[in-house]
Amino acid sequence: MKELRLMKGNEAFAEAAIRAGADAYFGYPITPQSEVMEYLMAEKPYERTGMIVLQSESELGAINMVYGAAACGKRALTSSSSPGISLMQEGISYIAGSELPCLIMNVVRGGPGLGTIQPSQSDYFQATKGGGHGDYRLIVLAPSSVQEMFDFVSLGFELAFKYRNPVMMLSDGVIGQMMEKVELSEQQGRLTNQQIDELYPWATTGKKPGKERRIITSLELDPGRQEKHNLKLQEKYRKIETTEVRYETLHCDDAEYLLVAFGSSARICQKAMDLGRSKGIKIGLMRPITLYPFPYSIIEQLSKQVKGILVVELNAGQMIEDVRLGSHDRIKVEHYGRFGGMIPSPVDVLYAMEKQIIGG
Amino acid sequence: MTQNFDIPEIRTPENLVYKKTSVLTDNVLHYCPGCGHGTTHRLIAEVIEEMGIQSEVIGVAPVGCSVMAYNYFDIDMQEAAHGRAPALATAIKRVFPEKFVFTYQGDGDLAAIGTGETIHACNRGENITIIFINNAIYGMTGGQMAPTTLPDMPTSTCPYGRDVKIMGNPLKITELLAMLPGTYYVTRQAVHSPALVRRAKKAIRMAFENQKLDRGVSFIEIVSNCNSGWKLTPVQAIKWLEENMLPFYPLGDLKVNGELVKKSE
Q1: Radius of gyration of chain A (CA)
Q2: How large is the average pLDDT for residues B159-174?
Q3: CA gyration radius for chain B?
Q4: Closest C-alpha to A30, from A86, A81, A64
Q5: For the domain that residue B200 is a member of, what is the CATH number?
Q6: Does A208 touch chain B (CB under 8 A)?
Q7: A279 to chain B, minimum CA–CA distance in Å?
Q8: Cβ B84–A67 below 8 Å, yes or no?
Q9: Which residue, A120, A121, A132, is CA-closest to A86?
């Protein structure tokens, strides 16, 4: 008895938040993700599950509300698009420094600056290399379908609470706006305050008599202690790198040429791969699902098998740096990208593969 | 410097007339001697103890001199980014409507970098308490100009005095917030004399009691001194406060029970 629905990516994300038992969503409207809050407000999640939905005065307000709720051990989330995510970087750095779990979705649009409202993947560096100030990492999930816009919400919360770390879903205007069939999962219950107290001994829920008070802070003026805190964070990131890598491979077993792409680009590449194979060119596709931790080892493995790699991104060449690191420049690794909201067709991708990798 | 002020023969139960509230920790305050932060901390802690709500309070510390306020209150606390305390408090109160939530903020935090968060939390009528310490200067960073620095008052970033034509006017944010429908109680207090301390404590008590009513923000400005930043001795600083700060920032209630207080001239 599957519950199926035709939904926009942004709507699937919003419905998933309610069904994942989220406690609070805070956001500020920005194209192309405004449907998230519109859907939530129309659905009245405060009646369905008791979930709080609040439109803040800015993205600064939204991310700091997420901080406050997350510090209470609540499942808090927000969503925005590129310029708004830039504003949130201050809060994200504090949330990472204070080791709080939360979910942030970026429905990426083209930049820099106000840029465009059209889809792009130009926030890869910002999402995967830290984004704000200080040495920190976000766990970054890259949905490439409306189904994954739904599924990655509960996965994101699971990872966020497992590691006490912010999780970002790096989506884009294509995935956010397009409609696809979604299989909905069942409603999960929200945790009670008592459950939160038992599960999260760090959460500020009010000091219990005879117990130590709980403080959520990212401040430590003593350099020795601050270094220790940083080392602890780095240890956590190494653990994430060894245990949470996720990717998908298609036709890689016999591949002579490899396409590497995430999110909406991977959907275009899938078609380009099929077109290539129909012409007798053995193309495989590797799609990173986690952009951090990046699947370096599968790149390394495949770089020993294939003759060349084409990295396809809706940007000027960002993930290609990680692909090159993984391949150790053993083989030719080239980038093909469009930006500013332009989207290549599968034919464009196949042509680039033939020209830049096979013929090059 | 290493005198022991403890005199056991005096410290006997029958002589005990006053004692440190249990809601303050034993950590030594890092505030400069003569500063109003310590007194205000104590008043908040006493109110929490007297109301018996220690396990029900969540506080939010700012960035500024009181950035480490969480070292002194024996309650659960969160440390906000500069100016963002009202956003955190909004979320805390919304996920825990039954708890008592307060922010503790200085003038730079609340009235400069956090103006947006302050105004919108107040305008939404969040059911929280905001304690605002106004000493007209940035103390922690070494005495720079604040949004509340008085006209012609010198600071390290206006060493020849605040020229309002160039640097803009001091912001009377408390008057501004009193006009918003979301504020329920707005008052301006001070803590540099015993009578004022008693009055300020009553105001803080009311601000916390108001949270039970769910009527909106209770906002308390404390006009304080910064003898270090003002380059004055504590005694001179209090005199300067009375002669310069209080005429510009007059003490008293601005809004009570959601009604603006009419000034009787």
Answers
A1: 21
A2: 98
A3: 18
A4: A81
A5: 3.40.50.970
A6: yes
A7: 57
A8: yes
A9: A132
Instruction: Flag whether residue B3 sits within 8 Å of chain A, measured between CB atoms.
Output: no
3-class state of residue B259 by DSSP: strand
CB B221 within 8 A of CB B188: yes
Q: Average the pLDDT over A207-229 and give the result.
A: 96
Q: What is the pLDDT of residues A73-85, one digit of tens each?
A: 999 999 999 999 9
Identify the structural domains of chain A with CATH numbers, from first to last: 3-193 (3.40.50.970), 247-358 (3.40.50.920)
Nearest residue to A317 (alpha-carbon basis) of A271, A356, A276: A356
B91 chain-A contacts, CB cut-off 8 A? 24, 26, 54, 64-69, 72, 76
CA A175-A181-A186 angle, to 5 degrees, is 105
Residue A29's SS3 state is coil
Residue A174: CB partners within 8 Å, gap ≥ 6? A119, A263, A264, A267, A343
Q: What is the enclosing helix (H) or strand (E) of A85?
A: helix A82-97
Q: In this complex, is the C-beta atom of A52 within 8 Å of any C-beta atom belonging to chain B? A: yes
Whether A66 contacts chain B with CB within 8 A? yes
Distance in angstroms (rounded) separating the CA atoms of residues A240 and A262: 19
pLDDT at B1: 47
pLDDT tens for residues B241-259?
A: 999 999 999 999 999 999 9
Indicate whether B101 belongs to any domain: yes
Chain B residues in contact with A62 by the CB 8 A cut-off are 87
Contact status of B197 with chain A (Cβ, < 8 Å): no
Q: What ipTM, to 2 d.p.?
A: 0.96
Q: What is the mean pLDDT of residues B85-110?
A: 98
Is residue B4 domain-resident? no
For chain A, give the mean pLDDT.
Answer: 97
Question: Which residue range forms the structural domain that includes residue B133?
Answer: 23-259
CA angle, B56 then A190 then A76, to 5°? 75
Domains in chain B, number: 1
Residue at B58 is within a domain: yes
Per-residue confidence (pLDDT) for residue B16, from 0 to 100: 83
The SS3 assignment for B59 reads strand
pLDDT at A63 over 50: yes
Mean pLDDT of all residues in A168-178: 98
**In sequence order, what are the beta bridge partners of A257?**
A283, A308
Contact B78 A204 (CB under 8 A): yes
A-chain CB neighbours of B60 within 8 Å are: 68
Nearest-Cα distance to chain A for B136, in Å, is: 25
